[in-house]
Amino acid sequence: MTTDIPRVEPVVRAAPVGGAAPVAPPAPVATLEGVAALAGVSKSTASRVINGSPRVTEQAVMRVNAAIAQLHYVPNRAARNLARRRTQMIAMVIPERTAAFFADPYFAEVIQGAAMYASSTDYTLTLLIESEADAEKTHRFLQSGSVDGALLLSHHSSSATYLELSRSLPVVFGVRPIDDLEFEAHTVDVDNMEAAAIATRYLIDRGRTRIATITGPLGATAARDRLAGWRSTLEAAGLAGGSDAASAASPDLELVEEGDYTPASGAAAAERLLARGVPFDGLFVASAQMASGALSVLREHGLSVPDDVAVTTIDNNSFSTDTKPQLTTVDLHTSEKGAEMVKALLALIAGEAIERETWIPIELVERGSA
Questions:
Q1: I want to staple 212 with a disulfide (CB 3.0 to 4.6 A). Which of 89, 255, 268, 342 is the partner?
Q2: DSSP 3-state of 93
Q3: Is 341 in contact with 151 (CB distance < 8 Å)?
Q4: What is the mean pLDDT of the chain?
């Protein structure tokens, strides 16, 4: 039986002569009880409809939704979240130096993708840039119940403390944890070995036979994977080995230099490669930032790109397009990675079973450097 809600007529008082115009009192705020009464259902049934429970009839859903529309009812999300012990907040944690964070477009692209995806949900994304000095404070915040889950984004391998945190809080890593042996860590990343292999094969296909590389910091999983992809591709093509017995035994002895993903480090690594006096006609650089620095050094030494040295790299951003020539690169679809990280984290928060590893597709972008 349907129960009608009594109509309440607004009271309007005449304003005193010369006074302000009369103001009607605000309309009463609709409540769950009012929705249930207008729909002719119990409060618990109305609540189940609002929360999307399948344990209600289609007729009840129609009546409750009609009552919600008529009363302009807005669910109290704060109360619902409190009952579920949810904050509707997730954190993007970036354990990097602040200077490195602001200078590297990789972080901006991942965060943009994550923020855009989060904006389509009920969750709010907050950003935490962690330094070594406040690492403990960050961990305390994450464990305090202030967020429902965390995304860990860094160039470097995740520490054991974050792996340990993943036992008690949903965590998704943007880099494969180096010590992920006893933990069930969830990772959203690209195949860095394959990215390096694609870039190196491109040089080989263009007839380059002495291919050097500038790696990222080898304390990071991604940098080691890119080095391994370069090495295995040369070996598969029969190009491993150098100009003497020592380099033949260790093919990357003369043709590998390490950088830290900055343009300055790429320039310094290129200087070191040239100072060895060992000729090379191809160069794979593990990031576009470093490649932009390396290009300037090659030009200063009178080497033409791509005629004398063909160059390929990884990352499709401004550092790959603002150079002359523009860089042939492997696009890691970094913004998509951010979105997929949030998608995976929200699935974990909801208690859904997901794959431990999600791989983002990559593709080669051909430009003038190779």
A1: 255
A2: strand
A3: yes
A4: 84
Measured CA to CA in angstroms, residue 108 lies from 71, 197, 311, 335 at distances of 43, 26, 25, 9
Integer Cα distance of 22 and 297 in angstroms: 77
| CA torsion through residues 275, 276, 281, 283, sign | negative
All domains of the chain in start order, with CATH: 32-75 (1.10.260.40), 89-190+335-360 (3.40.50.2300), 192-331 (3.40.50.2300)
The position carrying tokens 């006893």 is 182
CB atoms within 10 A of CB 333: 17
Instruction: Note the pLDDT of residue 25.
Output: 54
pLDDT above 70 covers what percent of the chain?
80
Residues 6+ apart with CB under 8 A from 20: none
Q: 346-367 pLDDT, tens per residue?
A: 999 988 888 889 999 999 999 9
* Tokens, residue 23: 């103001």
Please state whether beta strands 89-94 and 124-129 pair in parallel, antiparallel, or not at all (unpaired).
parallel
Joined together, the tokens standing for residue 293 give 């620095």
User: What is residue 175's DSSP assignment?
Assistant: S
Rounded (to 5) percent helix, strand, coil in the chain: 45, 15, 45
Report the alpha-carbon distance of residue 73 to residue 70 in Å, rounded: 8
Q: How far is CA 110 from CA 167, 211, 264, in A?
A: 25, 31, 23
Residue 205 in 3-state DSSP?
helix
The whole-angstrom separation of Cα 134 and Cα 138 is 6
C-alpha to C-alpha distance for 265 and 214, rounded to whole angstroms = 9
Alpha carbon distance 297, 266 (integer Å)? 9
pTM, two decimal places: 0.73
Say how far apart CA 115 and CA 109 lie, in whole Å. 10
**What confidence score (pLDDT) does residue 219 get?**
84
Tell me the C-alpha distance between 328 and 195, whole Å: 12
Q: What pLDDT band is residue 8 in, cutting at 50, 70 and 90?
A: very low
20 vs 214: CA distance, rounded Å:
76
The closest alpha carbon to 201, from 226, 236, 248, 228, belongs to 236
